[in-house]
Amino acid sequence: MRIVIDVNMHYEIGASRIAMLAIEATGDPGQTVLQQDLAIEGATLRRMAGQSGVGTRIWAHLEQPELRLRYRADIEITRQQPPLHKLRADPAHMLPADSFTYLRPSRFCQSDEFAAFVETRFGHAEGGEKIAAIRDWVAQEVRYLQATSNPQTTVLDTFARREGVCRDFAHLVCALSRAAGIPARYASAYGPDVAPSDFHAVAQVWLAGGWHLVDATGMGTPRDLVLIGVGRDAFDAPFMETSDEARLLSQTVEVQTN
After folding, report:
1. Which site from 62, 67, 167, 230 is most exposed, i.e. has the minimal number of CB atoms within 10 Å?
2. Does pLDDT of 80 surpass 90?
3. What is the mean pLDDT of residues 120-126?
4. Which CATH number do you get for residue 89?
5. Same domain, residue pair 92 and 203
6. Is the pLDDT of residue 28 over 90?
7. How many angstroms separate the CA atoms of 75 and 226, rounded?
8. Quick one: which H or E segment has residue 134?
9. Pseudo-torsion of CA 26, 27, 33, 35, nearest 10°?
């Protein structure tokens, strides 16, 4: 599947005139970047690897206190997702070293608080069957509602309120998966069926020797999601980060199939 991305951002950055961005599609075994272009007016850019070596973080040093950018990309998705419920969970001694980071509690995913719940609710299942059950439970129990959470909302808040946006759905899947002993990381992405169209967040779980995308919102599948970057939670994978408060002036994120 071919995905075309067109992002326009206009922010007032403040005195620092520095922003860190994570908006470029990453090269990945399941997706190929055919073409991409990032243009930022009056900026000096420095690129560095993203968390776990996935994706790119870009430091933008601006000549003016406003950030104006356009990002365009053409991506081919070749990722094949086997039935989730058929994927095995790898034993702890066979996990790659980096995956242990994604078994631990993190700032927004306090997975250690959910061990008893996960055992009671999902203890009957194993491996991918358990992840599929977690995904379906989150999809059924949590309502997707705009403006119901903020950057400080944790998975404990989402579990109690049973409402949130894609960020909160991803945090909850990650926390429950980690509590089940399956590595899970937060992933930022683009998707053509995300509504309203915006940057998107999903989970990635380690099963059968690889990372697999899981979207409990139902707005994306492994065959149409474009991966940007990953982290322990949203703290590690924001699309933009500044030392000063940034003021949104305008932003559009258009993602279409081609």
Report:
1. 62
2. no
3. 96
4. 3.10.620.30
5. yes
6. no
7. 8
8. helix 127-141
9. 70
For residue 32, the one-letter residue type is T
On whether the CB atoms of residues 217 and 193 are closer than 8 A, the answer is: no
Residue 48 Cα to chain centre, angstroms: 18
Domain span holding position 168: 84-231
Could you tell me the CA-to-CA distances from 185 to 71, 101, 229 in Å, in that order?
25, 9, 10
- Nearby residues of 97 by Cβ (< 8 Å), 6 or more positions away: none
The strand pair at 184-190 and 226-231 is best described as antiparallel
pLDDT score recorded for residue 212? 97
CATH of the domain at 251: 2.60.40.2250
Residue 96: what pLDDT? Answer: 95
Question: What number is the average pLDDT over the span 12-36?
Answer: 95
Residues 133 and 192 in one domain: yes
Q: Are residues 213 and 245 in the same domain?
A: no
In this model, does residue 190 exceed pLDDT 90? yes
| Claim to verify: residue 149 and residue 214 sit in the same structural domain | yes
CA–CA distance, 136 with 123 (Å, rounded to integer): 15
How far is the C-alpha of 97 from the C-alpha of 152, rounded, in Å?
Answer: 29
